[in-house]
Structures are given as C-alpha cells and as structure tokens.
Amino acid sequence: MESTEKAADHGPNPLSIDALLDNVQSAPPRLGRTRLIGIDGPAGSGKTTVAARFEARATLRGLNTYVLHMDDLYDGWTGAERGFGLLRDHVLQRLADGREGRYRRYNWHLGAYDELHVVPNTVELLIVEGVTACDRDAAHWQSLRIWVETTNEVRLDRGIERDGEALRDHWLDWMRWERDHFAEQATRSRAHVIVDGNPSTPFDPATELVATSVALPPHDSAAS
Question: Each residue's pLDDT tens digit in the chain (224 positions)?
C-alpha cells in the first residue's frame, strides 16, 4: 500500500545521497526491473542539479542509470500536462510491461518534437526530473519522491539568467500555472524528501543534499 505519511519538517540538515540510494535499492523495484526516482518542484528550484548528483553517486555504484528531463517532453510552455502523459504512457507504462520506453525530445527552438530516445528495460535506476515528474499517476511506480524548493525570487532570477529577459512573461505565466498544478496534485505533501534548492547550511555538494524534511517510504508488499 502506498504510504500516506507526510515528510516531517525538521529544519535544514545535510542528508547523504548514498543513504537515499541505499533505501531505494533495499526494496524491490516498482517499475518492471527498474527503480524510479522522481524529482519535482517549481521551475528554477534546482531539480536538474539534484538529479545530476544522484546520477553521479549511482554511477559510482555501477548502477545502469538513465536521467530523463521533463523539459524534453513538454509541448512548449503550455505543454507540461501533455509531457507527463507522454512520460506515463510511452516510458513508464512500457517499462512496467517489460518493454523499452520511448520518447521524442521536444525541440524548443523548432517548436516540434525531434529525435527519438529509447529507455532500455535493462535500466536499473531511472531518474525523472522536472515539473509533473511526481504527479499522482506515477506514484505507484516510484521508489522515491523528492521535492526541491527555493524562493520565487531566486527561481525567477535563475530562469531569466538562463532563458533571457524576453521570456520573463512566459516564466511568470508558468509560475502561476505550476502553483495551481502543485496544489491540485498535492505534490509537496506527498514527497518523501523535501530539499532546499538554495541552501545556506554547509554541506558537501558531491555527496549530500540539504533536506528540510524526510519521511522515507516503508518497504512493504506493494513494492514487489
């Protein structure tokens, strides 16, 4: 049965990425032969950075790891929900059925889907990062759900620095949309770990995250 326990706030503290991977690996996979980590949270909060740190630690363990960025599935600025549908139906469901996952990467410059990517069913760890990565329809496949957050000001500054001032209105529209989406999905409250995406607490960025709440999922029969 899916745990309903909410992450308990305890203040910002360093948390070992290896300890989280230990927890994921100690339970049977939920997605065919693959263990799935979802990393969600508002745009500009630091999800891609967190995913890269998980990938690095998993690779050191010799795990066959694949990182999928939701930005590659969105159908433009208004296509996040379609992007999740593509993830669910063409990657996650196919892996759950023992087949390879497939998706076409969205080319933001051309405004169209481009080359085909394949997620082999032999992948041991799939990390999906981006807004909608932890939508409810993916929950039963996920071994770990992570929420990354920071202030609106920091997120917008990061977005404008990356994408340019000309896209400010797109960013503001997106921030309004994702606020409502996260509220409807209760994404934050369903997370197993809440991460500070702009921490002031000292930590080792190669091996740790700064977590403000942790409630790791129990290992029960639903994970088999």
Answer: 344 344 555 679 999 999 999 999 999 999 999 999 999 999 999 999 999 999 999 999 999 999 999 999 999 999 999 999 999 999 999 999 999 999 999 999 999 999 999 999 999 999 999 999 999 999 999 999 999 999 999 999 999 999 999 999 999 999 999 999 999 999 999 999 999 999 999 999 999 999 999 999 876 544 33
User: CA-to-CA distance for 194 and 121, rounded, in angstroms?
Assistant: 29
Three-point CA angle 181, 187, 190, nearest 5°: 160
CA 103 – CA 114 distance, rounded (Å): 9
Alpha-carbon span 50 to 195, nearest angstrom: 9
Cα(49)–Cα(205) distance, integer angstroms: 10
